[in-house]
Amino acid sequence: MFLKSLHLRHFRNYSEQSVTFAAPKTILVGDNAQGKSNLLEAVEWLATLQSHRTHRDRDLIQQGHESAQIEATLERQGVPLDLAVSLRPSSGRVLRVNGCTVKRTADFLGQLNAVEFSCLDLELVRGTPAIRRNWLDRILLQLEPLYSQLLQTYQKALRQRNALLKQAGSQGWDEALWQAWNQQLVINGTRIIRRRQRLIERLAPLAQDWHRVLSGDRETLTLSYESHVPLGDGTSEAIVAAFSEALATRRAIEFLQKTSLVGPHRDDVGFCLNAQSARQFASQGQQRTLVLALKLAELALVESVVGDTPLLLLDDVLAELDLQRQGILLEVMGDRYQTLMTTTHLAPFAAPWRQQAQILKVTAGTIASVSDTAAQTSD
Ligand SMILES: Nc1ncnc2c1ncn2[C@@H]1O[C@H](COP(=O)(O)OP(=O)(O)OP(=O)(O)O)[C@@H](O)[C@H]1O
């Protein structure tokens, strides 16, 4: 898969900007707060219809404007493909594939695949469970576009159920409606749990292998999906039964706390190094190694499932890695994956590597092509 060009209009700090990608590797260099991450965010948005930096479309639109557009031309297995999105909070999103408007997000997702690795991902180990759930969900959205509908249906059931819990204790309690939302929560929640659990099972051996390489065979990484619902033998029937039972058991406490306490919206992912919780014991260096192993696993999994090489988006991460890990990452990338990476300095990139890359200078929402020497001089 190759992203040939990108056009941004009123997206973040870009007023109107076209970029043509001319090499498998593109380095976006510039000072802080110039728009480097914003450009990667636009590509991430085309891949997942989400940003890991914000949940609100409004934030993506340039201040003082009503709408933003992202347009991309790519080549997928030799076939050209045009993608376009228009974000307008007042009237919603418009998604187009090859000039035709698509109604379902599932028809847009999966057209462009990308694996993003940013310094925010370093939070995957120590951050909140929501960060790890979002990570799984973003991968699933690319592997299985219909997952977006499943998430939406689940979130709707959760919102309705929480609204009912807020009314609990008042007159006119509607038990039938409560049971109906419980059923929706259990059916869709079970589907989500099973998909996430299967994803972990597929990522685990890949991440384990990478981790072994990165840690010089010193540590063994294990991944587990930590659900509030006992998974039993992992079948739908077993999870549905356990989920229903957990809801019945926790009914009193949910009524007291007025919120839903059981379901995939509360689940987590566990990482262990040599059987010890990475969240509690991993050093900064071990966390970086672990996250790099996860990202390399993600890259391999997306590639094997979609049958094409995803784009790799590296947002300011090379500086976070030591020379050995940088070397491994750059070697894996080779020319196999089209890679867009941001940096404030070109120094960490070896000279031969820089010479092969397209270097773009980002300054206050404008992008200019520069030679290696020119970028170095102004660096
Ligand atoms: N909706 C918006 N409208 C206008 N400007 C915005 C909007 N959202 C973000 N910005 C601006 O974009 C800039 C941040 O860009 P970005 O996050 O891409 O930085 P960066 O170049 O990657 O820098 P760093 O190296 O610090 O990560 C800031 O100046 C911010 O004010």
Quick description:
The RecF protein is involved in DNA metabolism; it is required for DNA replication and normal SOS inducibility. RecF binds preferentially to single-stranded, linear DNA. It also seems to bind ATP. The protein is 45% helix and 24% strand. With 379 residues, it is α/β, with parallel strands linked by helices.
Mean pLDDT reading: 92
Cα distance, first to last residue?
A: 31 Å
Q: Which strand order does the major sheet show? A: 2-1-4-5-6-7
The CATH homology group name of the domain at 1-113 and 308-379? P-loop containing nucleotide triphosphate hydrolases
Can you give the helix content as a percent range?
40-55%
- The chain-level structural class is alpha/beta
Q: Number of DSSP helices?
A: 13
Per CATH, the architecture of the domain at 1-113 and 308-379 is 3-Layer(aba) Sandwich
Q: Are there runs of 5+ residues with pLDDT below 50, and where?
A: none
Sequence of secondary-structure elements: EEEHEEEEHEHHHHEHHEEHHEHEHEEH
Multimeric state: single chain
User: What would you call the shape?
Assistant: globular
- The rounded Rg comes to 22 Å
Q: Which hetero ligands occur in this complex?
A: adenosine-5'-triphosphate
Total number of strands: 15
The largest pleated sheet is described as: 6 strands, antiparallel
CATH class type of the domain at 1-113 and 308-379: Alpha Beta
**Strand residue percentage:** 15-25%
CATH fold descriptor of the domain at 1-113 and 308-379: Rossmann fold
